[in-house]
Amino acid sequence: MIKNVLNTDIYAITDSKLSLNRNTIDVVKELLKADVKLIQYREKYKKMGEMLKECLEISRLCKESGACFIVNDHVDIAILSKADGVHIGQEDLPVSAIRQLLGETKIIGLSTHSPKQALEAEKLYKDGLLNYIGVGPIFPTKTKVDVCEAVGFEYLEYVVQNCTVPFVAIGGIKKHNLAEVIKHGAKCCALVSEIVSAQDIPAQIKEIRTIFQGSKK
Ligand code: 3NM
Predict the structure, then answer these.
(1) Are 68 and 39 a contacting pair, CB within 8 Å?
(2) H-state helical runs in the chain
């Protein structure tokens, strides 16, 4: 059976451009202090060497805390840093090729933005190649520059009703709209700017968790 890492409420994703000049390692330490169990390293503007160095350290910290560590896009860095897996987009290498590189035990997540992509991902999941999908952007977001228009709740509901692949809702999710996303069926949500741009990350995580607890169906 393919491993499900989305059995947690918050999926935190790094972005040093939005982190109020804090370095990524310090942000990850704050996330771990707040007991976040799923962290993705997503840095679009750093050199490969710097990313590898940071991922080696984050991988170690996550192992120490029992958190799952996913690297965005860079399979090579994921392998070298002994991360738990990678998260890729529709334009990256096919999931089957990445599975070949990573082996059976690692996590592979794939961003999806339409019912067609969800159905393709569902097949990959049933074939034991893919672990989870991202579903978004639910709301408009400035964090991901090359992403399509917001898909709204329509696409989220489609996935809830038609797919068995584990999914994480993403894109423009903030404290003020999180309850609605959960009510539409999302059990795991990824928030980038809302978490990494917070002055006090553990306090922000606590508030987000309270919303999760108050919104469970
Ligand atoms: N992926 P924020 S939207 C990284 O729809 C990412 O696949 C998306 O950032 C997708 O929480 C997104 O700051 C950015 O809106 C989410």
Answers:
(1) yes
(2) 24-33, 48-65, 75-80, 95-102, 115-126, 152-162, 175-183, 193-196, 201-215
138 closest CA partner among 167, 161, 116? 167
The count of other CB atoms within 10 Å of the CB of residue 176 is 9
Q: Are 121 and 133 in contact (CB under 8 A)?
A: yes
3-class DSSP state for residue 95?
helix
Numbered residues of the known binding site: 40-44, 72-73, 92, 111, 141-144, 172, 192-193
The CA distances from residue 84 to 63, 130, 190, 197, in Å, are 9, 13, 17, 25
ipTM of the complex: 0.99
The structure's pTM equals 0.97
Q: Please state, in angstroms and rounded to a whole number, the distance separating the CA atoms of residues 91 and 189.
A: 23
Task: Please name the CATH architecture into which domain 10-215 falls.
Answer: Alpha-Beta Barrel (3.20)
Q: For the chain, give every domain's residue range.
A: 10-215
Identify the residue whose C-alpha is closest to ligand 1 atom 4. 144
Task: Name the active-site residue from 16, 19, 37, 42.
Answer: 42
* Average pLDDT value for residue range 139-151: 93
CA angle 85, 184, 5 (to 5 degrees): 20
Amino acid identity of 42?
Answer: R
